[in-house]
Design brief:
This protein is an alpha/beta fold. Helices cover about 45% and strands about 20% of the residues. Helix 5 runs parallel beside helix 6 and helix 9 runs parallel beside helix 10 (about 225-235). It binds FE3-S4 cluster. FE3-S4 cluster (F3S) binds near residues 12, 13, 15, 98 and 194.
Amino acid sequence: MQVKMAKSAGFCFGVQRAVDTVYEQVEKGVRPIYTYGPIIHNEVVVKDLEEKGVRVLNSREELEALTEGTVIIRSHGVGKEIYERIAQKGLHCVDATCPFVKKIHRTVEKESRAGKQIVIIGNDRHPEVEGIKGWCSTPAAVLESPEQARNFEPLEAVPLCIVSQTTFNYKKFQDLVEILDKKRYDRSVVNTICNATEERQTEARRIAGEVDAMIVIGGSHSSNTQKLFEICSKECKNTYFIQTVEDLDLGVLRSTGLIGITAGASTPKKIIEEVQTRCLN
Ligand code: F3S
């Protein structure tokens, strides 16, 4: 069997960097270590870190209860106030915020200070958006649907600065900006969408169209992995969704020549490599 591995399979740059940061701290012997929220939505990784002594802070209250230790900020980032609380409490902070998210923080901080009203296109309940709001010096508006954009009433005579959650769909972002354009001419738009997700999907589609069988690796509840599976299934009827190497049915794959492999955004490299090795041996 021959294998075609997607380069963009698994963690994006920002998540890989955040996970590596936690392991680096563990290896340095830093204790106790906390992550502000799970470092990634992958139980295997979170459990492995837990066994190494890394605890997850699930709420602001849990942060308040700490008296010592290192708090690692995950790739989604947090608001300014969380950094201030960590410092006030005498805790050590290691910042693993994705640089692309950090850039949004700097933009909204600067523009809101300059007197602009910040509009974030994204999901108000998403931790990344929570964090972005926390860098605005005036209250930001969060819009997710065309209906919300239509109902939005900008402040009188205040210029707008529009940014986006990094994982927001580009087409939807454009639609919402178009609606806002009709309300306020004095506005700046900063496209802060990260193309990691789209690149992963485009590559998966291409590979699935070139192989005899396609394997998609990821958690059963991971929506981005399900999306990859859907995309690949359209291109290749022999597409298989597996969670780990244990689910791999080599009996089925043995008769196929070329196999493609991709993986969802929260699938660790180790699992991807195990599947690749099993296919090649
Ligand atoms: Fe990942 Fe950073 Fe983009 S966390 S999805 S590389 S914004």
